[in-house]
Amino acid sequence: MNRRSLGRGLNSLIPDTNFDKEEGKIKKIPIADIRPRKDQPRKNFDGIALQGLSQSIKQYGLLNPIVVTKKNDKYEIVAGERRYRASKLLGLEYIDAVVKEIDSKDLDILSIVENIQREDLSAIEEANAYQELADNYHMTQEAISKTIGKSRSYIANTMRLLKLDDRTKDELEKGNISSSQARTLLAIDDLDQRMTYLDDFLNNKTNIRKVEEKSKKSKKNKKVIKEDKDTELDRILFEDFEEKFINLVGTKVNISKSQDIYKVTFDCFSIDDIENLYRRLNKNDD
Fold first, then answer.
1. Which residues make Cβ contacts (< 8 Å) with residue 6, sequence separation at least 6?
2. Is residue 125 among the annotated active site residues?
3. How far is CA 76 from CA 15, 79, 107, 109, 194, in A?
């Protein structure tokens, strides 16, 4: 199985681990002096998987050092808590670590991104992580894309899964349906019809192509094809302009339509944000 790799945007925060030990960039730090972050997003660690990792470390050694930051006279884990826990299981006294000075915001982002690298992360957990980066750290989909190392369309399609109804999200989170099946269901507005197709997916009575064909046929019979196309076109245009506005003003932007009225909403979190928004718009207007 191919492991997920950290995004290229993190290179400035998490260093390459191929360091020359003689240069002192990798240190052997007492495990007793290291602690996990209290607000680390990942709370549960599979015991069997940790045992397997500990045996691998016992046989081959720690292939990649953990990354820590100095906290008073102790160290706090930035990346590599599984390796730290597996090393503790072996009873090791020291562990290879890279010490990094990282500010609080970058530390939070690194923890979220490391959580995204989990191979057992569900699509909904991944979408929530992207949404957290957007909401709490004001990162655009383009910025998230560069940080994670995935395409912007992948980020957008994953985040869109959060618009699903609760039952479909629950089945997706349990792994009973795939992300592709979930996105197919997301295109079906009628909830009863969506639940019917969801049950068919769960019972292996249909596939994505058949559901798409049935959905298109149903829409055609109801004579709403043009409306659906217009709605889809609006959504694509909205996302494009939202990204352009975000790059222009540096804050989250939402575009919506109610009947014949288009609404553009800028998220501001302080008076300074409002002033900065005005300056940017006024500057570009000149």
1. 14, 113, 114, 117, 149
2. no
3. 16, 9, 10, 15, 46
Tokens found for residue 5: 């790799």
Question: What is the distance between the alpha carbons of residues 261 and 263, in angstroms, rounded to a whole number?
Answer: 6
As a whole number of angstroms, the distance between CA 68 and CA 74 comes to 10
pTM: 0.53
Q: Are 161 and 150 in contact (CB under 8 A)?
A: no
Question: Which residues face 263 on adjacent strands?
Answer: 256
Residue 62 CB neighbours (<10 A): 18
Beta bridge partners of 98: 67
**Nearest in space to 17 (alpha carbons), one of 76, 77, 93, 80:** 80
Find how far residue 228's CA is from the centre of its chain: 29
Q: Which of 146, 66, 64 is nearest to 99 (CA)?
A: 66
| DSSP assignment of 96-128 | EEEE----HHHHHHHHHHHHHT-TT--HHHHHH
Query: Which H or E run contains 67?
Result: strand 66-71
Contact status, residue 264 vs residue 245, Cβ threshold 8 Å: yes
> Which is it for strands 34-35 and 74-79: parallel, antiparallel or unpaired?
parallel
- pLDDT of 5 reads 45
What are the φ/ψ torsions at residue 210 (nearest 5 degrees)? Answer: -65, -40
- What would the two tokens of residue 276 be? 């900065």
Residue 13 in tokens? 């925060």
Whose CA is closest to 170, among 158, 180, 182, 160? 182
Judging by DSSP bridges, how do beta strands 253-258 and 261-266 pair with one another?
antiparallel
Pick the catalytic residue: 81, 114, 171, 242? Answer: 81
As averages over each run of 10 residues, the pLDDT of the chain (286 residues) reads 46 45 68 81 67 88 87 85 90 91 75 70 87 89 86 89 94 90 89 93 91 75 52 66 75 79 82 79 59
Which pLDDT value is given to residue 159?
93
